[in-house]
Amino acid sequence: MKPLTTLFGVLAASAAVLAQAQVTQPPSPFDPSPINGETYYLINQLSGMQVDINGNSAVSGDNILQNVRSFSRLSQRWAMTKTPDGNWKISNIANGLCLDSVSVQGVAWTVQNPCGIGVPTQEWSFTYITNGYNTITNAGTSLVLDRSEEHTSELQSLRH
User: Fold this and answer.
1) pTM (2 decimals)?
2) Are 88 and 80 in contact (CB under 8 A)?
3) Do residues 121 and 140 make contact, with C-beta atoms less than 8 angstroms apart?
4) What is the distance between the alpha carbons of residues 21 and 94, in angstroms, rounded to a whole number?
């Protein structure tokens, strides 16, 4: 009888220790992609500057720039619209024009143009990197949104 009592005493002590241990839940899944219909600031991780339109321009084809951060200028706010194929249209809040990629003399530039349906150069994908940052890739050109080395304020589409 004594061995059974000892075994019961060990089991009761183990149950008390387990009851005191904290239950840890796995982390919730994290989806870093934009939310359809929301507006965002697009910040260059390296320079700390934000994507901006050129002097409040509403002219089609004007280059898109990076500029000092201002969380009050509408020209630096961009609306995200999900396309049926899963890519994103990125339009400026101030002028309603979309980010587009055009090639001029063999160099791909990021410009603003009226938003169109089924225009691959106006569609972008987001690939999460780390710490809240994404790589933004043009669906039509497969080039990544980046700043120009030659003209540091202008944005180009460069190979990834």
Assistant:
1) 0.76
2) yes
3) yes
4) 54
Beta strands in 2-142 (DSSP E): 39-40, 50-52, 65-67, 78-82, 88-92, 98-104, 107-113, 124-130, 133-138
The mean pLDDT value of the chain amounts to 82
Helices in the chain by DSSP H: which ranges? 2-20
Closest CA to 58 of 90, 95, 92: 95
Give me the phi and psi of 32, to 5 degrees please.
-85, 0
Is the Cβ–Cβ distance between 76 and 92 less than 8 Å?
A: no
On whether the CB atoms of residues 140 and 119 are closer than 8 A, the answer is yes
Nearest CA among 114, 113, 121, 118 for reference residue 143: 121
Mean pLDDT of 136-144: 94
For residues 84 and 120, give the distance between their C-alpha atoms in angstroms, rounded to a whole number. 12
